[in-house]
Queue: 4 jobs
Job 1
Amino acid sequence: MSFPRLIAAAITALALGYLSTGCSTTTSVRAASVKPDGERKTAPDFTLKDPDGKVVHLSDYKGKVVVLDFWATWCGPCKIEIPWFTEMERKNKDKGFEVLGVAMDDEGWEAVKPFAQQLGINYRLVMGNDQTAQMYGGVDALPTTFLIDRAGKIAAVHVGLASKKDFEDGIDALLGNNAAPGIVRDDTGGRAAVPAAGGSK
Amino acid sequence: MLLCLPLAAQNSGYLTVGQVQKVAGKRGAAVETKIALAVRPGYHVNSNTPSDEYLIPLKLTWKTTGALEAGAVSYPKPTLEKYEFAEKPLSVYTGSFELTANFKVAANAPAGPGAAVGQLRYQACSDRACYPPKTIEVTVPYTVQ
């Protein structure tokens, strides 16, 4: 690369860096924990079964904040998030919050039950299928986790391993637990002031 | 006797089957073939001996072997890689590697060409997400001399 081109590239890089980080202290938040209310779409309803064979509809959870986690026993990153969800379920259950785990194991409950027992999963599990995955955009990468608001709308999606803080902030925002409403964490680890329930993810 | 004729690659997303050597041998002869595999950069597949009981191993099984009798499949030594999502290093394959499939030409095999067809099951992950197990078909052409 020639010297003038190198200078131009450096200036461009500095400018992009300013836009992506320098502005994040005002209203430009990258990947905030939840979408603004007006941008949320209704989470597709499904009918799946829990380990006892009981039918579970997502619509059963309307009025609650729901973490809908697509996972599998063979998914290492899922295994990191599961204890977080167990803790969040315990901490927020009486505030109108539920975690619903959708297992995507081809081997079914035979594989999932002992795994769930081993990890001490305290939230409800259902057995997923391709049809349900397609309703949610395919869900090829696991974990894929949807944060659903009390109106049954998708407020955030995390594809792959996310940070525990992102989940906590999103749940707090939807439950109205924020000590300082409108403060959400961005993916860079910084904090940014945005309008209530604002975000760009 | 072993002939080495490369065949077309088969791609199934995160793992690609590259060259498969064509085998040729006389009745009763022990033959082997190398199966070249390549993992997409930035991803890994579990080895044949994963570090965790819940992880799905790389495994080649034969659906049909024709005039060949299937022997052992040799897997290369895996690497132990540390990922953010696992406390301990995982036994994985990354990049390019080869499997060796061993056969014996049946004593009553008719002379001429044929093909052994196998299924290679694998499960891939990146450092942040995992992908459903997949199965790729592996075809090993052979000639009984």
Note: Residues 1-31, 179-201 of chain A have pLDDT under 50 and may be disordered.
Job 2
Amino acid sequence: MNGLSTSVWRGLPQAGVAAVIAIGLAMLAPDQGYYLNILMQASTYAIAVVGLVVVLGYCGQISIAQAAFFGIGAYGVAIGTVDYGLNFFVAMLIAVGVSGVFGLILGLGSLRLGGHYLAMVSISFQQILTLVLTNWIEFTHGPDGIRNIPRPRFFGLSLQGGHAFLALCLVAMVLVALFAWRLKATKLGRAMQAVRDNDLAAATSGIDVFGTKVIAFGISAVLGAIGGGLFAGGFGYISPDQFSFAESIVLLTMALLGGVQSPFGALIGTMLLIILPETLRFLKQVYLAVYGAAVILIMVFLPDGLWGFIDDRIRRNARAITLPAPKLPLLSQTGQMSAEKVLEVADLAKHFGGLKAVDGVSFAVRRGSVHALIGPNGSGKSTFINVVTGLYVATAGKISFAGRDITTLSPHQRNRRGLARTFQNIRVFRGMTVLENVMIGAERVGNDVANAPAEVLTRALAALDFVDMRADAHRMVGELSYGHQRYVEIARALAGSPDLLLLDEPAAGLNMTEKVELGNLLKRLKGHGLTILIVDHDMNLVEQVADHITVLNFGRRIADGAPGDVLRHPDVIAAYLGEPRHEVA
Amino acid sequence: MSNFLQLLFNGLGIGAIYALVSLGFVLLIRAASVVNFGQGEFSMLGAYLLVVFFNIFGINYYVSMALSIVIMAGFGVIFAYTTYWPLRFRGGLPVIISTIGASIFLENLVLVLYGPSSVQIDGLFDADGIQIGDVFLATQYLSIIVIATILVVLQYLVFEKTLLGKKLQATSQDKEMASLLGIPVVFMILITFAYSSAMGGLAGMLVAPLLFVSVNMAGIIALKAFAANIIGGYGSIPGAILGGLALGVIETMGASYISVPYKDAFAFAMLLLFLMVRPQGLFGEKISEKA
């Protein structure tokens, strides 16, 4: 959150300029009620749509209740000012607070639910709110709605006039858009995107996935209510049908058509969908049908929305960014092998029903060593790694890391203690650049640079230097080859300067050249004294780097010791190699 | 007690409608992983076709229904080609938006062609219903329950006992493998769209005499049917049927015993309850991602 506040402060000059431009634009608006109303509607809707950009675009959580939050804002202002005689801004503040709380509650639903389910929760919330607005007549005035909602004064300045109030709406809109735009490049913003792209990798990179989702829902609900509050002031009259499910769909469509990855997309989408039906009015009755067809066409031809299309063109032309500075050192000290046990597992077990995938395994990884965990397919290696990193809950046994019991900690808490991992089937954040991926690693809570944004950047670049990927820093990860994505994943883990790095089959899917490069990389890491636990099938690779080998078979440890001894162990030969190891290629 | 039985009967009647619409949802989810927000419009179109053939052209009621069902099946194919096909490789959300676009388009097209006034239409039979003791079995509800039962049994037989059904199942479980085995996957998906559309249309025709036929008659029905689908278990066929029936009964009872204005809230409150306590629904399977 620290990075967020500094980033917001640094945005102040921009915000000032943007606000002045917004006021200027408002004054330029034609002096006719019709135009003022359209612009007021567009700007207040746009604020709510930016909320969707945060929750859906950044964090990847479907919310089909934005009109409900918009409605809470509007009704809060209306009831507060009309029935309780509160000041406009006080009423707005209360409404925004209430909406934020409902947003957080909705976000709590994401603890156990995702995708369609979460969408359905939000739809239910939306429907129930509509029913309450319609039927709780004593409080909400029921289907008749609320009239004569006053416009406020602002430090003695009257905002009664159309232009003045429009200026307030536009200023709010640009500030909200600017906030969302800056949010994307903060630690919180990156965490949201990581959760969206790959929640497991986010968790094992130290991100509190659940907390991040809840915050995203909260922010989205707050923005929805700000838009709604201004809407109520702008039009002076509200009724329940303005905040129905259908309106939530309209807001969602605006976000997706404009481009849900950016607040600029939100602004474009909102303007388009409010102005398009107006300009289509010459088509008389057909216009809404044409509008529906336009939605399908835009979805078919511009999958990332209008802004996504524009942004893609800009990005293609700006590909040639070069980063200055010499190669940066990643690991300053050279660690020494010692007897200290970094990781110690005791009688660890993981059962799936009757299947004992890991069945009472004990061993320790010593500081500064490269420890290999090998075993035939189905021997429980991957399950073991998943239990150690917290993706699975252990059935029995104890895991100690750096002298502390971590058996019951969640994956992100384990990562924050200094436990980093890579995945067998690469898990990178595909919607982000190489550099952003690695920055997420550097930002892990507990890392020495975590709270200094400038140093996070330096550390991330250093990690990219280490795997020789700096030239690709600004490319999207999804564009890279499989082998290079593997390096990005390793760099992400390294940037967090972990005490222990778990590599889950890093050679899987690599070609011969890439395997040789990987071997060299591991040797360099070993030279720097990083403690590594590596799981792999590639005996060649394991023999090159391992100081110590543990062998699993059918979930049990069958051998543990120095490579030479272990690989000559008769049980190992029988179980894993099947024949003397010299005949294995 | 008689009041309870009466409510149970009426609840099952409206629940059978939810079940039919929910089945339409589930089939598309299984065959093409499509969450179709235009499902309600299928029902609306079906009802309007019936109005056109019966009220306007004066064709025999049952012939009108048959004609409408055939047209709806054809419409399902057109819907698939325009709304789903161009976006089929882009994941769930773009298709959802595109079906939303389609539903806006259809609603407004009908509005243009037919105007905003709602229309009344006759029921399946002239007789009002049967009085058994204190319970009145209205003909239309009775017909809905009987037709829904027949359809469900038929569908079960087709899916489980015929080669076509096996092919449809294979398509829904693993499109790639099905296609490697020589099953025409595209054709199977089109059949599913056609069937889903025809069944949605039929549900609309059955419910039409109970409500007025209007442009937005089916929106809330579709939403509740989707809720029924989650209560029953996302993507589960028996779940869709039982979820639909349960929802119909609970909402009818809730409206009568607790509160009429909040009738529509019971479905969603029940949904929320399920999502908190048993998110996989009645028949759903727990799915966990492999690391």
Note: The radius of gyration of chain A is 28 Å.
Job 3
Amino acid sequence: MSDIESLAQQEYKYGFVTEIEEDRAPPGLDESTVRLISQKKNEPQWLLDWRLKALRRFLQMLETEQEPTWAKVDYPKIDYQKIVYYSAPVQKKQLESLDEVDPELLRTYDKLGISLLEQKRLTGVAVDAVFDSVSVATTFKDELQKQGIIFCSFSEAVLEHPELVRKYLGSVVPYSDNFFACLNSAVFSDGSFAYIPKGVRCPMELSTYFRINSAGTGQFERTLLVADESAYVSYLEGCTAPMRDENQLHAAVVELVALDDAQIKYATVQNWYPGDENGVGGIYNFVTKRGACRGRRSKISWTQVETGSAITWKYPSCILQGDDSVGEFYSVAMTARRQQADTGTKMLHIGRNTKSTIISKGISAGHGQQSYRGLVRIGPKAKGARNYSQCDSLLLGDECGAHTFPYLEVKNASATVEHEATTSKIGEDQLFYCRQRGISEEDAVSMIVNGFCKEVLRELPMEFAVEAQNLLGLSLEGSVG
Amino acid sequence: MSAASKAAVLEIRDLHASAGGNEILKGIDLTLDAGEVHAIMGPNGSGKSTLANVLAGHPSVEVTRGSVVYDGKDLLKLAPEERACAGLFLAFQYPVEIPGVTNSYFLKASLNAVRRHRGEEELDAMDFLTLVRDKMKLAEIDEKFLHRAINEGFSGGEKKRNEILQLALLEPRLAILDETDSGLDIDALRIVADGVNRLRGPDRAMLVITHYQRLLEYIVPDRVHVLAEGRVVTSGGKELALELDKKGYGWLEVEPAQGSAG
């Protein structure tokens, strides 16, 4: 296998830095940090109080060393007092339209392939662009509003739709849920908010594009999507960051709520800077994502393509509360260089006849290490619940690793639970077969990897499926030959 | 005897090769001219498949001595994909499965890689489909196989027919068939052999590797070479295959010198 041992030395093409005037908080975390963020955003008292509660809890957890250590990832202790918790590009005045966005920012998103202006004309995707700690632009807002759909930055939602935010914020991921979610609850700065009213099928993809730019900062965004009865929305997020020698923390929280007969499809293409081949730099991606299928026959699907970040700690989960509700998790995680990922899902079956599907595809190359960690819990009242889990790992080379940690708790005898797991190597024989048919080694690896991920990639919206395929190929560039 | 005036497609001289530290080929000499079909026979472990792998450039086999000239070029200097693009085709004894990659995607990628190399225009989806449908008839493969993952869940016979389909599609200069008959029932054997026979032509050379004479009843070779312990111990016309069938391989190993002379 010597041909495919020296892996993934590809250029990270999003590694540039935008020179822009910043409004930064001093590093460190205490009450004044939280008050500053809240004040910058003109937040109501109830939200400040909520943040402060979270802060107190977090500091307590920090003091008693409750940072989770159970994940199979290894990193030096984070000094939470050295992080800058708020950094925003300086905006001269309130923006009336996209034309007023700083051209430097527009150019940044252009370089990332997300043209905020052209987006309007070209594709049916509405974009909320989050730059460091704040949302800098949201496209298609007015058109969506005509159907009663709210899609805006989280900060704006707090001011414009406080009743909705107050009702749902923390209702799926409470502020005290876990160490990183608690930190996020105290210092979250922006993110996206969407509300799809009763019976409305959102006519376009909603998406948020996250960009970390500033050095020494953490990004703590919060996304909240609510699909009211019989509503439908497909949402996707993308993420990139500059190449830096330091590690940067990204601790986001995403909450989804689906009421009766509602459906939410949530897709992520995560391409944070992964660090270099020696494991220097890269983003720590410690994220809590959870969806509540509150209503009967509601459905939440998570699809993720995780190719970036130095470390990923992420378990998009579904609480299947409503009878006949459905949860799905489709994941492709790729770890190359010295990347580490501990990722998976939790499917909590509470209602009757609830159904969940887990398809996890892990690809390890170079010195990459990854673990699938998944919990399927069938509660005592979840009569007729069904789960199907499939976890496949593909190894490229001899120095990477793949691990599977499935947890299963069944408290109702009528449940059906199936689990399948496979581990395979890209065989020399598969590669040779392709090459004997004239296909170059790199194209062959990319073809085999994409074939391996097919069940997940086909869940992505069309435009992003292509991007994801390219990304998988790109992440393996230079991995052979 | 092949006429000296014909163009040699393949000239193997004193070829030695090892795999996993063991020398398996111990000095092979063989010349194959355009338009000819040669059979390589021999007992298990004689080096037949290793020879096929060396010619196709399998990374697990190391050439330690000798030369292989293919259409005037030093074959051993080329990467496997370059050999394929130059028209060398190996029908695998054990075609591999590639989950999630459809046969049609693979065939199109392969055909277009070869066409690019030949300086021909790549085929778009429509033209490709027209062509591949035509070739599928030749290999008697149902169209539904286009949409299935490469060789995944194919029966032994289906896999071999899929190899013949690729052979027909890529129209190589030199086709090497590595035990294409193994594991086939008589009907599948006939289909495969018919497919191969229809692809015989004045510009194409074929090397048919087989353990049994049975295949050679259907694909009648111009020459038969018998391999034993990494060497060609005897060569002859198609009747040599029949003789082997009657006597088995045992007599060759006892009297290799006589065999060569005969």
Note: The CA atoms of residues 188 and 220 of chain A lie 5 Å apart.
Job 4
Amino acid sequence: MDWQIVWESVPLIWKGASTTVSLFAWALLIGTVGALALALMRLASFKPFVWFAVFFGWLFRGIPLLILLFYAFFALPEAGWVLSPFWAAVLAFSLWTAAYQAEVIRSGISAVEPGQWEASEALGMSRLHYMRRIIIPQGIRIMVPPYTSNAMTLLKQTSLATLVTVPEMTLLTQRIFSNNFKFIEPIFALAMIYLAMTTLLLIGQALAERAFRLRV
Amino acid sequence: MDALVNVTGLRKSFGSNEVLRGVDFAVGRGEVVAIIGPSGSGKTTMLRCVNLLERPTGGRVEVDGHVLCEQLDDGKMQFADKREIRETREHVGMVFQRFNLFPHMTVLANIIEAPVAVKGVNKDHAKARAHELLEVIGLGHKADAYPLQLSGGQRQRVAIARALAMEPAVMLFDEVTSSVDPELAGEILLVMKRLAQEGMTMLVVTHEMSFAADVADRVLFIDHGLVVEQGPAAEVLSNPQNERTRAFLRAVLDRAPMTTDEEAGEDGGALEEHLAHGLLHQEPGESGKGAEAEDE
């Protein structure tokens, strides 16, 4: 492996980093908001909410992400809804994230001791209030590790957006080797950049775990 | 009698398991009623039906003038709407066997959460009142501690303070000494005894026979989901009429001879001094901070 080429590839690939990060951040943001709504629906007593949340999880966890991406990019325009490649990708990734993180949030909430719900109820708190102040803050502690795992998966999966022409890091890497026919070096540089990004997420996980740990 | 809690024909089944089979009882204002009985007799379920943590499958529950549930003529249960249930719970303090303090919040935050959020009490007032309560239960120095940093006895005292901060009309106690070490039970019982002396209405599920004898006005003995015997504490405990009550008391007293509340652990004396300042809220101006509620 020629380190010189690895080194020269980095700035070229790095031009796509902001696109990768925006894809990831938008999908994580929209997906997490959706996931919270789905988790609360899943735990609601109003049955249609439960059915919708179950259906959503079944559908978007059951179809390969790549196919969701193709749908957003190729099929939606035929239905008259044209999105830029970037936003088509954000849409597909958000649906995927919402479906997976909803399970994380739901299981985190369910893992909070029943006594916490009872104490809140006995004090006359409204459900909205104690979910926000008592249950979810304790559930977060349980949610952080699996939430981070899903986020790491999402970050790596943004490379699929290459296939719908979003100029993120993986696409730019392909441009390098179609120019100079060097394959190993740019790919190595790309892998290292992804690794650096996922490492940041793991550091975030460690910090979050520390912030939410119980004082004993 | 001015009944604060009035329960008639209370039934509760979990699937095919009928835990309560038609229970009637009432608790008058200022009365302390102890519920005793063998494990699995339904006493905890009975208590939890009073604030609807358990939804009865039959009968009627009325608390502080609110009908929480009622059985209609066709046998169906009709429950009060959510808002009314919530409003009633504001006046019904509950203390649990396993404390159920909020572990992610400080002791102070545990106590002020509901008064501020539910009753709309000004945060500074709530804090001042919480500090006052903590002082009286001998935990003034623990306001900024987290629940898991406290002993079981301390946690349960905080749980009592949390309930009292809502200024409830009645307090429910569900085996509140059962998950603390025996030598720490005394400090919890002292606080409860003081509360009774100040005239709090209390419904207490307990295995502490000496507490029932000392503090309760009335004792209900529950077995297999029915009130088997009830009456003044002294009568039921020293001269039980029912054979099952006799057998239960024999078994309980054999295992643990009656202890007195004076055995309240090392700092029992200090705690008693703190408690003398009174747990219940005094109207400002009515009596200064020095004047204790000596209404026993």
Note: The radius of gyration of chain A is 21 Å.
